[in-house]
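Support case: user asked for a sample of complex input and structure output to validate their parser. Sending the pair below.
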Amino acid sequence: MLKGNAVVGQSGGPTSAINATLSGVIRGCADANKCGVINTLYGMKNGIEGLLSERLVDLCSHFFDEEWLKTLETTPAAALGSCRKKLKSYNDDAQTYEKLLSIFKKFDIRYFFYIGGNDSMDTVLKLSDYAKNNNYELIVVGVPKTIDNDLMATDHTPGFGSAAKFVATTVSEIFRDVNVYTVKAVTIVEIMGRDAGWLTASSALASLAGAGPDLIYLPERSFDTEEFIEDVKAAMEKNPAVLVCASEGIRFADGEYVGSGGQSGAVDAFGHKYLSGTGKVLENIVKERLGCKVRSIELSLPQRCAAHISSKTDIDESVGVGKSAVSLALSGKTGVMATIERCDGKEYSVSFGVADIRTIANEIKTVPERYINARGNGVTEECMEYLKPLIVGENDVKYENGLPLHVIIK
Amino acid sequence: MLKGNAVVGQSGGPTSAINATLSGVIRGCADANKCGVINTLYGMKNGIEGLLSERLVDLCSHFFDEEWLKTLETTPAAALGSCRKKLKSYNDDAQTYEKLLSIFKKFDIRYFFYIGGNDSMDTVLKLSDYAKNNNYELIVVGVPKTIDNDLMATDHTPGFGSAAKFVATTVSEIFRDVNVYTVKAVTIVEIMGRDAGWLTASSALASLAGAGPDLIYLPERSFDTEEFIEDVKAAMEKNPAVLVCASEGIRFADGEYVGSGGQSGAVDAFGHKYLSGTGKVLENIVKERLGCKVRSIELSLPQRCAAHISSKTDIDESVGVGKSAVSLALSGKTGVMATIERCDGKEYSVSFGVADIRTIANEIKTVPERYINARGNGVTEECMEYLKPLIVGENDVKYENGLPLHVIIK
């Protein structure tokens, strides 16, 4: 078994469960340390960006520190810090790869764990290829993370269940709120998800509490203003308070984002267009066309950091997939991502698997057709069955001064 | 002791604790029913609006139903429904008063409990005056409720503590989120509070978790764009991720709302201007002047309905003030509001008191000067001491299918 040190990093947008996965990696490495395989586990501050400037923290002091690890598991956002750096190809930026190699050698790093979304898996792919081509023995394992649930090869992604629980809970509470009055009113909730509607679909779970949205619009279907107005009118016939959940990423038939009206066309480091304002645009459409009271609510950042309402199923699995990544590494797998597989059977259960990184990096898993109703304004029973178990269970969040306790890694 | 029936209603904007107060009134009336004083307790659907159309529900079946009452106490929004109806003066609308009187007589209503904010206390005042002037023996007691904490004569208002806990928790989670990157970025959190900055001030409590905002702007001080830009620049010198909390109600020195830019000047039934967009305006100012990454987040409705993160102190006191309102009524007090008084001593404790409704109705209690720092961009230690105990404690929220369990009153 390859002996040496390990490094773990977090990358991309934070989630409520990304630190649970970090805890899983620490737990796995602690065991490997006991067996004499992994000597030191370093944490890279701000992902690959920090690694390049050797900003490393020694995480060994937290091995077997159960209280600290438990608190880490319900601490939102990347405790090691994150980055949005995308590695260029070797041909375009050989220098960065050479620098990384020299750092790996300097710190005798043989295991590289990277917790992130599809952009981060691209880094895993490039690094594992580079190490192989340069005959440096390095095991590179990706660990999935994204509230968007849009990674291939895994039944669902760590972080999604907690975001879904926040969305469903918040939608159920908003439902109670908007139903106190008797006047006609439309409330539009804008939910994250650039290209995949998983998180928006999870708003349907609020119906399990009798408090679900009337209409749900996902980016997988093109948005039609006339149909939307018809849908709202029909819903209002049944109940004066109409609740609409819409993905930030819905587009018109011509491909233009509904929310791009007020936008500058600015893009992030990966060329993704900055989105916002979808709810506002729908609010204005309703105001103009129906003239009734209307309000839009953008759920915004709390979707990915409201760890106080994280899903126990998600946190447990996030720890599990982190530990599983270490097991995969120890068994010599490289250029792979740890996955979650849903087991067959009536009762929900999962096992942890593995997938070749090449099938994942830069790919997006969208909500399948069979999960969306014919009209394109709601989800199917099959979708509900898929989503239901992911938000089950509450975590034992510790509080101090009335506020959730978080762990800080200096 | 006056014998007969009682009616309870909820009015104005919902809170996470308004049903806890309803539970308190039910608990109080259950005891009074046992003693043979109150026969039936009716709930008016949608406040005074529903009372006028005799939409009453019999609440006696819930007397002593501990499980139901406990779930009611963590159910957000007005379970009886609410309204925004403001009674005109008797001279302007004698008909409505006469109708109400006939309904009181028809249902032998002798006790009238109204849970609401300052607008609702105006209803309490008018009704008690009218009953007196018409020699109809009616005890009218107001029970405070508002996330704004802007009612006179009470140390704080039921509902505020839970909203403050949601705000402080969410701000602490947003702090973790925005601090994962190393790039310069400003995040602006817009918080409810039209005229009083109490809820915005409570964002400072996040500093107890080491995750407080850098800058806090309350409507009690006029907002100066140049000072704001200076403040943001200075904060950025210390930490690249700048977190700003601003009240929706901040105004420029000339009295114009910062957030009124994109507004139509529309007003609600009480003549209050609809506000929104304050965060967006500040976002645009930062974008234009500093050119760095900037995002605004409007906390919106969850501030008043996120009952899953309600404050135990608030819920316990909200039940207590509801019960206290019944005691006041049984002792013959009318035209009054039940209040919360903070006891002297090092340990936080409260007792329940009473205030003449005339000192409360249509008045607003703002954040005092000594609670705001000299620069007007933060709160003082004295303010922190006042706020701290109000968010302490977590409620035993029941979950089903991963969602908070709510009670519904049909």
